[in-house]
Amino acid sequence: MLLELKVPSPGESITEVEIANWLRKDGDIVSKDEELCEIDSDKATLTINADQGGKLSIKATAGEKVNVGDIVATIDTSFAAVESAKIVAPVVEAKKEAAPVAATKPVESAAPIASPANYAAGVPSPSAAKIMSENGVKSNNVEGSGPNGRITKGDVLSLLANGFGDKKASGNSRELKKEKMTSLRRKLGQRLVSVKNETAMLTTFNEVDMGNVMQLRKDYKDKFKEAHNIGLGFMSFFTKAVTIALQKYPAVNAMIDGEEIVYHNYCDVGIAVSAPKGLMVPVIRNAENMSLAEIEKSIASLAVKARDGKISVDEMSGGTFTITNGGVFGSMLSTPILNPPQSAILGMHNIVERPMAVNGKVEIRPIMYVALSYDHRIIDGRESVGFLYMVKELIENPKRMLFAGKKGEEVLLGL
Predict the structure, then answer these.
(1) Is 376 annotated as catalytic?
(2) Residue 180 gets which letter from DSSP?
């Protein structure tokens, strides 16, 4: 039986994708549910898996653009039965020979039943591919030691530990490298350019004393992890602060649709994640209703999916506000670009000890600069500055998050 593999739909409005990479070669015998191919769309990277085992016949090459529903490969399932017979036969022979032999001998005869390699020679495993991307290592620089020549994480780490071999050691190289932009990178570039051209983007800045929240995290991080089985980071505090401030300043949570302004009574917060194939922004739905632990777990789950290329289009669609943290890379200050059609984005940066005037005295405090880029067409200075200042106050006084941004005495007095 000949089974056709068709391009699945990555999401609404997407009609064309690009074959990013084949994980198996033409003519390989593949197993059911095995990952065969990676495809790039405008929003995400997806994989095509084998519905049945058999012999693979590739119809579309890597780098080729294809339409949703096109046939990119076929699988001849009759070969699956042949391969099964080849594997079973040595097992029977091994059992016949095992009778007069010591109990340790059948271990040697187990070799013929080892499963075939799941990847073609020179194809890195997901963990190896991530490290290679981060360090600019090419596949042809690494000798794979895995099954059938597959490149493992250990192969890449060994290469890096040895100074990247002779190719990296030769500092006089003037080699040029050209690499075709992925669909995701091209689409991202188009969106960023359109934001600069089509919005009245402006950025306002402030500084946040991180001392109190750092002390709170230090005091409770062990208990927090023990109770919730997740670490306590700064992103959950900022996400919580943002959801409170968005409800106070709804224009920051709005967007333009034609000649109308659409306001949202919920906070779907996007968290920008740097992935091997480009920037991705998975979305935490209804973050205003989540606890810090729920936010941390959502961030961790979505970030892993994004970095492994397993995140779906739905998980990156429909956000109302975005947070990006350049501080993890050492950024002191930046002006983040809007994530359309959203109207605002918060930029976090690194924490640096700086001399500050506190009650008439100079103290060394851990300070983070924060930036809010916004569309001035619907967000005025009062809303943008007020929003960012409220986020600052909530982070500097994290206990106020318990009272939706108010002080304890204000809640008691009904103010």
Answers:
(1) yes
(2) P
In this structure, are strands 269-271 and 201-209 parallel, antiparallel, or unpaired? unpaired
- Residue extents of the structural domains in the chain: 79-113, 118-166, 184-413
Global pTM reads 0.67
Q: Report yes or no: 323 and 272 within 8 Å, Cβ to Cβ.
A: yes
8-45: per-residue pLDDT in tens?
Answer: 877 666 788 888 888 888 988 998 888 888 887 766 67
CB within 8 A of 237, min separation 6: which ones? 213, 292, 395, 398, 401
Distance CA 113, CA 106 (A): 12
In angstroms, the CA 406 to CA 248 distance is: 11
CATH code reported for the domain at 184-413: 3.30.559.10
Q: At what angle do helices 126-135 and 153-161 cross, to 10 degrees?
A: 30
Q: Where are the alpha helices (DSSP H) in 262-360?
A: 292-307
Stretch (H or E) spanning 156: helix 153-161
CA distance 409 to 402: 12
Q: Is residue 254 a contact partner of residue 384, using CB atoms and an 8 Å limit?
A: no
Cα-trace Rg, the chain: 27
Distance CA 43, CA 283 (A): 13
Query: 209 forms bridges with which residues in the sheet?
Result: 367
Poorest-pLDDT segment among 55-59, 349-353, 359-363: 55-59
Degrees, nearest 5: CA angle 165-168-174: 145
Superfamily (CATH H level) for 118-166: E3-binding domain (4.10.320.10)
Spot the catalytic one: 51, 219, 222, 376: 376
Write out pLDDT tens, residues 365-384.
999 999 999 999 999 999 99
The two most distant CA atoms of the chain are separated, in Å, by: 92
